[in-house]
Write a structure and sequence with these properties.
elongated; 162 residues; alpha/beta
């Protein structure tokens, strides 16, 4: 019995230490490349530009502002810098906005590049894959101080005052 156990241990030791891959590395020393990424929902990517994207359902979604980035709990340590060609393999998804409104108003705004963009109506809100529970309540005075950006959609007309 002890002889069989010793033979099995010897065999396992040999298998683990014999070079078995194309690089001549033993299984016991094989490590993934440190630049390897596991493609998954929530992966944060950045190409050569300043924009940061989050992968979701195999699409890259632009995180429109630093406020949105921090609101969703992201940290810079989790952003992976990749080649632009790597980013380009993922189709562009809907942007991720910081959604805001004031307490006594039905109007919703998306913050982008320091400007508030009025979201015209519920069908537009839903088409942009925005989520009601993610709307943040801000003081109306604060929202009025933010400059107006183009409405969503761009042909929606003059945005209402918050």
């Amino acid at each position: 019995m002890m002889g069989k156990l010793a033979a099995v241990l010897l065999l396992l030791t040999l298998l683990i230490n014999i070079p078995i891959n194309q690089y001549g590395t033993a299984l016991a020393r094989a490590m993934p490349d440190k630049a390897s990424l596991i493609i998954r929902n929530g992966l944060l990517l950045k190409g050569s530009g300043e924009d940061v994207y989050m992968l979701q359902d195999n699409h890259r979604r632009w995180i429109t502002t630093l406020d949105a980035f921090t609101y969703y709990g992201h940290s810079w340590e989790n952003v992976h810098e990749v080649e632009d060609s790597f980013l380009a393999q993922f189709p562009e998804g809907t942007p991720i906005y910081l959604l805001m409104k004031c307490p006594n108003s039905p109007h919703v705004y998306a913050l982008e590049d320091g400007q508030k963009r009025w979201v015209k109506d519920i069908p537009t809100f839903q088409a942009m894959e925005m989520v009601w529970e993610e709307i943040q309540i801000y003081d109306c005075g604060y929202l009025r101080e933010l400059p107006d950006g183009p409405p969503i959609p761009p042909d929606a007309g003059e945005p209402p005052r918050p």
